[in-house]
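Reopening this one. Same input as before:
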Amino acid sequence: MLVLVAAFVSLGQWQWGKAQRKEAAQAQFDALRAAPPVELPAAPVADPAFFQYRRVGVHGQYRPAGQILLDNQMQDERVGYRVLTPLAIDGGKVEVLVDRGWVAAGADRRNIPEVAVPPGPTFITGTAVQPSTKHFSLAADTAPPGGNARWQFVDLGRYAREAQVELQPLVIRLDPDQPHGYLRAWPRPDDRHERHLSYALQWFGFAASTVGIWAWAGFRRQP
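Same output, byte for byte:
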């Protein structure tokens, strides 16, 4: 009984902690979204965590030769791609990947959708995020950046090496009101927060049930 209760309580605390971290991330996100955008420098940032969820503005020019499509992205139960286009930042040789939103995949997955890239200088605003470093894929990406290559996940280190560019350690999610983008229903930091709370209550309930069953079984024993 003690082993089971300890395990169930530990699992409940784990899920509860995940919910609390998502609440804190959402509070940080909401506070930073209310602030005016800051200029993303032309040199690589030393502290990418400072820019996490912060609105940024960037002057530069899109580089269509390095565009990639992030595969197997779901939107309203439809499969598609997220369009990531590098932006050469004015005043330096550093680039930043801009997530311009979601496009639907065709019926034949062998046919890649045509995704246009706007020419000329531009100014964009969006939310800076650090891509997750935890990935799971059944197939390795082999295509180099460019030509709308399909990748399974964002690997900034690999992209910088293969494209031979200096890259900001961030991805910019283009603001919904910005032109030259696609469907941008960005996930919230507290996504599935209620699910984690539900799981936590279930584990705590299992712990309470274990104690109840142990007590009932103990009291009903005959001498």
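So the earlier flakiness isn't reproducible anymore. For the record, The mean pLDDT is 87.
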